[in-house]
Design brief:
Rossmann fold; 3 domains; alpha/beta; 19 helices; Alpha-Beta Plaits; 25 strands; binds adenosine-5'-triphosphate; about 25% strand; 6-stranded mixed β-sheet; binds magnesium ion
Amino acid sequence: MGDTRLAIRKVAFKHALAVTASATAAALLVEGVSKSFRRETGESVLALDNISFAVGHGALAALVGPDGAGKTSLLRLLAGLIKAERGRLSVLGIDAARDPQAIQSRIAYMPQRFGLYEDLTVRENLDLYADLHAVTADARRTQYTRLMDMTGLGSFKQRLSGKLSGGMKQKLGLACTLIGSPELLLLDEPTVGVDPLSRSELWEIIRQLVKDGLTVLLSTSYLDEAEACEWVLVLNEGRKLAEGPPAHVSELAHGRTFLAEPPAGTKARDFQARLLIDPDIIDAVPESGLVRVVTQLHADQSALRTFAGATARPTPARFEDGFMVLLHQAKGADTAHANPPEAEVPVSGRDNGAPVVEVRDLERRFGDFVAVDHVTFSVKRGEIFGLLGPNGAGKTTTFRMLCGLLPPSGGTLTVAGVDVRRDRASARQHLGYVAQMFSLYGQLTVGENLDFFARAYGLGGNQKRDRIAWALSQFNLEPFVNLPSAHLPGGFKQRLAMAAALLHRPEILFLDEPTSGADPFARREFWRRITALAAEGVTVIVTTHFMAEAEYCDRAAILDSGKVLAQGTPAELRGHASQKAGRMATMEDAFIAIVLKARGEPALKSALAAR
Ligand SMILES: Nc1ncnc2c1ncn2[C@@H]1O[C@H](COP(=O)(O)OP(=O)(O)OP(=O)(O)O)[C@@H](O)[C@H]1O
Ligand SMILES: [Mg+2]
């Protein structure tokens, strides 16, 4: 790693010189910028409304806000890819309206869906970007080593990028973006789908680049990442809600943040659902076996220290708490208290305690490569089971085998009592699958997508009509029924994917990173649905790279390189991590500890979560 660091420094030193030479007051200067788009339905949407801010040279800055806040539009304006209707943007001292090409030759922009060539190998993709930026053979050698080290893709150079796992693709995209030594980085959600370990490694690199003079502006839905930046811009529906150091936002929740202990025998997630009914509570999420609560400002604070009969103790506010307060003020009172999902009883038969999903010694090879290596677990009816693990661990491959989409190389698989290897078709009747980077038809409208999936599940006539009507109303998709699904705001795409998977009332749901890229509100809403479904008896197997979400699971397994490293309840898994000074161990601590121990690597000095 020492050599790599040195190489980074050298490259970054060049940046620093370039930056000083072209020094102006700010690296990014935005004054009174507005931008609207016309939807295909003819409706005009104001994506950015009179936005002004400045980011200094060498800053590490974050852009946060719910889906549809205008984050991507702002980044595209700064990259000179689209033009503002009103206002002025200057990037590295260059006017974006006058000379977008000059900007593009000095910055790097990584879009949300980075365009990798799936039929080229990892190495060929890098070569392509190096050619585009006319990088010399010498520079390639040092840059490639640095980038492969940073992304952990070194041993996969010859793999076709179409065959990488979701997170590996994201990391390769970032590597390609960094080729060509830009002076300014604009990154649109660079860590979506990236596992907790790689995320802290990527952050380590970003910090190093910034330390050496590069300016970085990134959008993120990980609020701990925003908290790690020196400057944050919070947007909502095109408007600026706050700007400045993240501590200014955390401050908004000061004195309003508590940790409440669920009554004995009550699951944290059920207690959370109960707390969310209280109109004085803005936000509640499970955390290390307790429930973290953010309250409305209240004259009599002490009265609020018991919630639903449980005792609660104050805890220091973090950025996420302040963010929820800010958004609550902007959106009105209905945010946390959106109607709870309606009880839906899709499950026939009652619980007899037998496992609904049983996986034994499951194995999958691709040539010599073992992607899933003797995996064993079982899940009971109504349980939420988490399948966690770093990028490339074999989670998606396991899901694909469970759904009968990929034949296993060995082992046994039963789903709802049906042997998946022997009778795929009848196993599929029992399950719903939401694929990673899900597979909706972008050109089809919301209504057409539902119709398509209903037919695929064999629904017809009145039954089909009723289930589509149910899906539209349950997931609040009615206003969008005629909108092509590609134009849905992010959170709504997720809802549609989930609605489609539930049309045939499956008793088992497989969810592969359903919350990746979703904003904090959409994620909370999503988990309320999942917990309600589980309470009705639906069995859920889910994967996520948001370790805080693993707290919603009854049990979870942690996989790496195709092997199960640990499994148990969140409390049992947390037991693998040592207590950090002044706070309880989190699932993220446990995940990192378990994976590093199995890999024989030393503990991380500065995991992002271990602020
Ligand atoms: N068709 C294939 N041919 C060759 N290798 C494959 C193929 N499909 C998957 N792999 C490899 O199997 C491993 C596991 O991939 P998988 O997609 O299951 O990981 P994952 O745990 O879902 O990761 P992520 O969190 O990034 O989504 C990876 O190394 C991947 O490159
Ligand atoms: Mg995956």
